[in-house]
């Protein structure tokens, strides 16, 4: 037998199994196209040079899509090969050796992989310009990103998916290499034994979910959220699988024990059928639930970041112009001189350009690090280790009064006090060698004081700051000292063009100021929209990818269940069960399958809200109402898409069963 015979047989097999192969090929083509588009963005020179955040962002997207591609193609391929076990077993009965069957599968894999890769790349090249137009719109750039066809993304795509399809071939061959033909013939109809409910697994499911939810609900600040987010996600994923595997079995067995419910024809058929293969069903349901959660979180958060771009920009830069000064601890008088001189200088520069300073805020502060123990603040070395207990700022009263417009007076043993989480309620605080009587104040400071546990101490004058740093130096004589810092922020009159030209002038002058950083809201706007638009683009990409995964996993699940149920329902019809009753009994199974994942996914996202909202604080997003509307909108949109999936795949299931 020559290769022409095997290739012809492989093509005939693909055509005869088109119900399975068409969705498999479409899903592979879609994922290949999306991977290529993301890879082409990562390799685009304009994206690389536009913003330092965008290359990292798109690299993350490429990695996520690559990992998902491996998992998803292997998962869908397992459905295809499962339905073909009887056919493969028949080859052995007819006398074909295993090496011959392996060659047939090799040609099938070659045809499907080459067709998928070539079509996916072609679709990526055709729709590439459309996606670049979308990216240009989202980034709001003055000049569009040029769409250039590069060889590197094509090569990455071909190599990745050739490797994935090679793995599917090895898996397919292994399915009949270690099994005899008779067992393969029975493999499709053997089914699974009724799973035994495990109270241990059910308890573990609740423990993992409770642990993941607990991390989200108790997360104190955004910095902690960064380190704990992936742990919480991992715990919830494990808990989801265990919940569907064990919890669903407990529910079904409880229904089975209820004679009033179970001993009715429709309920008897649906409960028995679902319980009989619940282990397989549970994994599919858990996959759909996790994918749905990813879609909702990815789209709602990235949509929120983009919609709130202007708001977050203003939160990040409350003033149009912002100059930060970083003092040298060996020359504390230098920053004092800069602090005074620069305020006068900027007012003069503004007048030279025919503009006016409408508002100016100037603030000196000393950064300290440590922990709160009872009524004492204990110093730790600056940046001591990876974990930061408490970050503190000490501000002179003169600057605080100037910033707030108040006229507060303090005695030598008094201080104003702000605590970011409000848990410190004592009326006094010992810091260094001083005891202060505290008066609580609201957060009149930067929103960044909420990124980690923070205290702000307003002391009577600069001598108190010098005294505190002397105490720190005495405790840590060899440790580096963070010098006194200062912020000067101001707004001016003028048109948008005049303000931008003004910001360019001040930025050029700032290069000559020692240990200083100038930031302008107008100059940062383009980069800000670039980054946030990139997040939205990535969110849409991943949301679309996970939605495709949900659709196709659901489709393959329905097809698989339909073929498994068809022979059973044919037998039931022969013993007198009418088609209407069959339809009613199967409808409850489908509703169970479709409603449960979306309900559990919504619960997951609700519990994820606290930790996600903390992470969004890093982007300057503080408007909970907008975030809630974004979340609700995405849930409704995804539920509508999910309903369409239900309608389509349920018809496929019914057509197979009938």
UniProtKB/TrEMBL annotation:
One of its GO terms (biological process) is transmembrane transport. Residues 62-181 form the ABC3 transporter permease C-terminal domain. The chain crosses the membrane at residues 21-41, 53-76, 105-134, 154-178, 199-217, 229-252, 282-307, 535-556, 590-612, 627-645. Pfam families: FtsX. It is found in: Cell membrane. It is a multi-pass membrane protein. This is ABC transporter permease protein YxdM. Keywords: Cell membrane, Membrane, Transmembrane, Transmembrane helix, Transport. Belongs to the ABC-4 integral membrane protein family.
């Amino acid at each position: 037998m020559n290769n022409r015979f095997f290739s012809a047989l492989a093509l005939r097999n693909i055509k005869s199994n088109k119900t399975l192969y068409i969705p498999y090929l479409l899903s592979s083509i879609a994922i290949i196209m999306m991977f290529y588009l993301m890879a082409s963005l990562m390799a685009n020179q304009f994206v690389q040079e536009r913003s330092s955040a965008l290359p990292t962002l798109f690299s993350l997207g490429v990695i996520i899509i690559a990992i998902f591609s491996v998992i998803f193609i292997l998962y869908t391929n397992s459905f295809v090969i499962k339905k073909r076990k009887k056919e493969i077993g028949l080859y052995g009965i007819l006398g074909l050796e295993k090496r011959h069957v392996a060659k047939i599968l090799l040609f099938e894999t070659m045809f499907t992989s080459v067709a998928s890769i070539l079509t996916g790349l072609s679709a990526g090249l055709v729709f590439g310009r459309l996606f670049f137009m979308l990216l240009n719109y989202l980034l709001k750039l003055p000049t569009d990103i040029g769409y250039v066809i590069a060889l590197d993304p094509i090569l990455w795509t071909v190599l990745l998916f050739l490797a994935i399809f090679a793995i599917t071939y090895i898996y397919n061959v292994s399915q009949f290499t270690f099994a005899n033909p008779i067992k393969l013939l029975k493999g499709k109809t053997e089914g699974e034994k009724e799973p035994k409910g495990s109270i241990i697994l059910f308890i573990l499911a609740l423990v993992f979910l409770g642990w993941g939810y607990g991390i989200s609900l108790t997360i104190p600040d955004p910095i902690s959220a960064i380190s704990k987010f992936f742990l919480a996600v991992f715990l919830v994923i494990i808990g989801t699988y265990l919940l569907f595997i064990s919890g669903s079995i407990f529910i079904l067995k409880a229904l089975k024990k209820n004679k009033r419910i179970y001993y009715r024809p429709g309920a008897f058929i649906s409960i028995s059928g679902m319980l009989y293969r619940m282990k397989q069903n549970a994994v599919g349901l858990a996959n759909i639930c996790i994918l749905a959660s990813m879609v909702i979180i990815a789209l709602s958060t990235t949509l929120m970041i983009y919609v709130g771009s202007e708001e977050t920009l203003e939160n990040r830069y409350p003033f149009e112009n912002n100059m930060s000064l970083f003092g040298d601890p060996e020359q504390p008088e230098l920053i004092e001189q800069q602090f005074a001189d620069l305020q006068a200088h900027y007012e003069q520069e503004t007048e030279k350009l025919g503009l006016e300073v409408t508002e100016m805020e100037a603030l000196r502060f000393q950064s300290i690090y440590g922990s709160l123990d009872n009524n004492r603040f204990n110093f730790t070395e600056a940046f001591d280790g990876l974990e930061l207990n408490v970050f503190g700022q000490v501000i002179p009263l003169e600057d605080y009064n100037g910033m707030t417009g108040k006229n507060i007076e303090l005695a030598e043993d008094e201080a104003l006090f702000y605590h970011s989480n409000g848990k410190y309620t004592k009326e006094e605080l010992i810091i260094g060698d001083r005891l202060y009587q505290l008066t609580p104040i609201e957060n009149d400071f930067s929103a960044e004081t909420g990124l980690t546990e923070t205290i702000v101490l307003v002391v009577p004058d600069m001598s108190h700051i010098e005294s505190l740093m002397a105490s720190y130096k005495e405790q840590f004589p060899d440790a580096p000292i963070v010098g006194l810092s200062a912020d000067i922020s101001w707004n001016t009159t003028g048109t948008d063009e005049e303000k931008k030209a003004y910001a360019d002038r001040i930025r050029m002058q700032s290069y000559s100021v020692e240990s200083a950083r100038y930031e302008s809201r107008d100059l940062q706007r383009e980069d800000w929209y670039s980054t946030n638009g990139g997040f939205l683009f990535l969110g849409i990409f991943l949301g679309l990818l996970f939605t495709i995964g949900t659709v196709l996993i659901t489709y393959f699940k329905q097809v698989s269940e339909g073929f498994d149920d068809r022979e059973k329902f044919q037998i039931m019809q022969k013993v007198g069960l009418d088609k209407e009753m069959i339809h009613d009994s199967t409808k409850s199974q489908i509703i169970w399958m479709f409603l449960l994942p979306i309900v559990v996914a919504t619960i997951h996202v609700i519990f994820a809200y606290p930790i996600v909202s903390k992470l969004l604080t890093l982007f300057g997003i503080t408007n909970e109402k907008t975030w809630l509307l974004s979340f609700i909108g995405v849930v409704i949109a995804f539920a509508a898409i999910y309903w369409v999936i239900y309608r389509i795949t349920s018809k496929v299931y019914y057509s197979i069963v009938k």
